[in-house]
Fold these 2 entries.
Entry 1:
Amino acid sequence: MPSLAEMRPSFPNSLLPSPQIKVCGLTLLEDALVCVAAGINAIGINFWPKSKRFHPFAQASAWLDAVPEQITRVAVFVNADESEVTKIMHSGLLEVAQFHGDESDSYVQKFLDAGIPCIRALSVRTPEDLEKIPLCPAPTILLDAYQPGVYGGTGRTCDWELAAQAVRAFPEKRIILSGGLTPANAAQAFHEVRPAALDLASGVEISPGVKDAALIRQLAKSVRSAMAPCPP
């Protein structure tokens, strides 16, 4: 199965046999290695200083090169200076930039033009919010729950019905579902929404930035088992 970075923009969500899984907000190498062993497709490192899961690049760079290349490494930014994004992405330690703030389309386009795969996060609470999706230059859209003044990581559940509408309406986009997902509801979320990927942070944590190995393994097992074809 292709990684988040390798999936083509034209790959229809409706044809995905099973979702990619991204675990976000990592701060420890051992948690990254658990994700690799469990078959998780991508990990996210949060570089927003106001986040509960903020992990300075100086610290992340000390262990990211020890993470096997089979897992996609995503840098999460919120309204960061372009120079900061450029520095981190040019380090070669992360492959995908995720923009989770109020970044403009032109801001995102600059990095796409530079050959950097990008994920654009959007908070949704009404059908009108979905109108932003086709206007966004990024081929991959992460849908998260809306909470004023907060940029993700709240543990609130995204509106699955709205997310499913987005998947059906914009098959040219890769839709990632985030917000309030846990090992207990992830498989159901995939069946109801059919996104290209599921993104979890608080749902597999002991505390902000520290993951629970048992929950990560449970997540991978429950999602992949639910997607397995039934025996004849």
Entry 2:
Amino acid sequence: MSDRETVLELVKRLPPNVSFRDIVREIEFIAAVREGLEEIDQGQGVLIEAVEQMIESRTTK
């Protein structure tokens, strides 16, 4: 599905009283997820263990 088609489907599923800001947030979220999946497909992802260490180092100070 193209980006345009994805956005059109997203907008169709949103409630009728949704704000422009909420629409933009939803589009940004979907774009970030797609970018992340592409990075994973290219082997550029971060291992969960590394993420856990980052979280631990920032929450135990």
